[in-house]
Amino acid sequence: MSLLETVTFICPYCGERVEVVVDCSIGFQKYVEDCHVCCQPINLAVSVNHEGEPSIEARQEDE
Questions:
Q1: Which residues have a Cβ under 8 Å from the Cβ of 26 and sit 6 or more positions away?
Q2: Is the Cβ–Cβ distance between 2 and 17 less than 8 Å?
Q3: Can you state the percent helix, strand and coil of the chain, rounding each to 5?
Q4: Which of 1, 9, 19, 41 has its CA 20 to 30 A from that of 30?
Q5: Could you give the number of structural domains in the chain?
Q6: How many angstroms from the chain centroid is the CA of residue 47?
Q7: What whole-number distance in Å separates Cα of residue 2 and Cα of residue 14?
Q8: Per-residue confidence (pLDDT) for residue 1, from 0 to 100
Q9: Model pTM score
Q10: In which residue ranges of the chain is pLDDT below 70?
Q11: In this structure, what DSSP letter does residue 50 have?
């Protein structure tokens, strides 16, 4: 396990795959990342389980 992991998710606006780098030393974090394809703001909720594996939930800004 690395402290920085690349996680892929689907943009809730345009449906394209987007990659972000996640800091796995933080158990839970929320932030906004712009889609690299359509430039829409995406609300991200990132959590890291006990094994250090990150998961990401991506939502539109108005959800």
A1: 46, 48
A2: no
A3: 0, 55, 45
A4: 1
A5: 1
A6: 9
A7: 30
A8: 58
A9: 0.84
A10: 1
A11: T
